[in-house]
Amino acid sequence: MTSVQVDKQHDGSEAEGATSGEGYQRGLGARQIQMIAIGGAIGTGLFLGAGKGISIAGPSLILAYAMAGLVIFFIMRALGELLMYRPVSGSFSEYAREFVGPFAGFVTGWTYWLFWVVTGITEVTAASEYMQYWTKGTDGWTDQPQWVFALIFTVLLFCVNLISVKLFGELEFWFSMIKVTAIVGMILICAGILTLGFSDAGDTASVTMLWDQGGFFPNGIGQTLMTLQLVMFAFLAVELVGVTAGEAKDPQTVLPKAINTVPWRIAVFYVGALIMILSVVPWTHFQPGVSPFVAAFEKMGLGVGAAIVNFVVLTAALSSCNSGMYSTGRMLRDLALNGQGPKFFTKLTKNGLPLVGTSFSAALMLVGVWINYQWPGEAFNYVVSFATISGMWAWIMILVSQIRYRAKSDRGELPKSSFRAPGAPYTSWFALLFIGMVIVMMGVDKDARISLYCAPLWALLLGVSWLVLKKRNSGQAAAEQS
């Protein structure tokens, strides 16, 4: 549904029925939506990035994940309220367009599209690097440069996304299943060590290590706050379930269930996993760039751990790239339907898939991979770092849109959602303030500050593009009237 169709929905017709004009096929079932929601919250930010967070904040990183997880839940419930009001594939940009303004929808759509293109480039590059674990030093076809695997993965995932949305959902289901199994397996192994005392870590493993190694805040509360930016980055893509709204079977039932699983997903996969790992391995043994899962396996004397984690991180990277292929095509089509992008992006295949938009995005991902290998310097790092701030922009627009929608629905100007966010709009305001604090932390951290440098350049480009677009649309309207 485009913005011009919104008024038609307000005549009393149901939101789901109103979305039929989008042209998509509802091929994503409850099982797939649930795993997409779970997988969106679990990625390389946990499997690799948590090592840096632990080295900075120690056991208090657990509290940082819990705090950020609560904010993520507020964001997802705000999104859920909007989705039940109007479940559409354009999601964030559609709501921004309706409740904030056309320019906000324009910025949100193109920014979220860029977020996934950049993320796809980095993740497929990372996946090809992970392959070197098994292929380095071997003979035959496997002894290939990294760009070969980057090309293979990009083409493979592109083909998957052009066959059917059901196949995309099935692949994402199994990617998520691998990640979930790995984390649950680690939790069970650590629980066994704590209770039965087996493995090399059995003699020293104890929950007291959470506060015996210099305290729960070994480096001070300030350092714990500095990790919030790393923690929030780890949750980027959790909002992907909103993009699936236009292709979910029975979205009025499936989406609320998926969103309501956010608290226990974060409690188990982040808080629970870190509690277990840090009870088996002292936090001082972790360092940036080393997966806490690998470090824990090594402490336990399980040499196979590195291979297992490498495989899991490989699937996490491919899962992220797969999600990027999926979402970019939908975002470009939504922009085109609203006159904010080239019209050829509106075309769908017989299977209801946005062929042109997905192909364009995949081509840029291939160009980006080539650039990364040719000039792996600071210029590319600036682009990559921008993915973080652009991802959080979607969260900001979700919260602002929900606040404005709630005000209108409470006044009776719009129908009330069947899945209202508890505590809103106060919870949404709290989440906005929290995100603002994280952005301030990014400005303080010299490594993360690059993201803030890139944002004004992107904003300038979007501003100029918007003016050109308005002039073009005005000229077309004048020509049609004459």
From TrEMBL:
Domain of life of the native organism: Bacteria
- Which keywords appear in this protein's UniProt record, sorted alphabetically? Amino-acid transport, Cell membrane, Membrane, Transmembrane, Transmembrane helix, Transport
Q: Where are the transmembrane segments?
A: 33-50, 56-79, 99-127, 147-168, 180-201, 221-241, 262-281, 301-321, 353-373, 379-403, 424-444, 450-469
One Gene Ontology term of the biological-process aspect is:
amino acid transport
Q: Which InterPro entries match?
A: AA-permease/SLC12A_dom, Amino_acid_permease_CS
Q: Name one Pfam family in it.
A: AA_permease
* Residues covered by the Amino acid permease/ SLC12A domain: 33-472
Q: Which PROSITE patterns does this one have?
A: AMINO_ACID_PERMEASE_1
Q: Which compartments is it annotated to reside in?
A: Cell membrane
Residue span of region Disordered: 1-23
* Cellular compartments per GO CC: plasma membrane
Q: Where are the coiled-coil regions?
A: none
Q: What is its main location?
A: membrane
Instruction: Note the topology in the membrane.
Output: Multi-pass membrane protein
Q: Which family does it belong to?
A: Belongs to the amino acid-polyamine-organocation (APC) superfamily. Amino acid transporter (AAT) (TC 2.A.3.1) family.
| Name of the protein | Proline-specific permease ProY
In which organism is this protein found?
A: Streptomyces agglomeratus
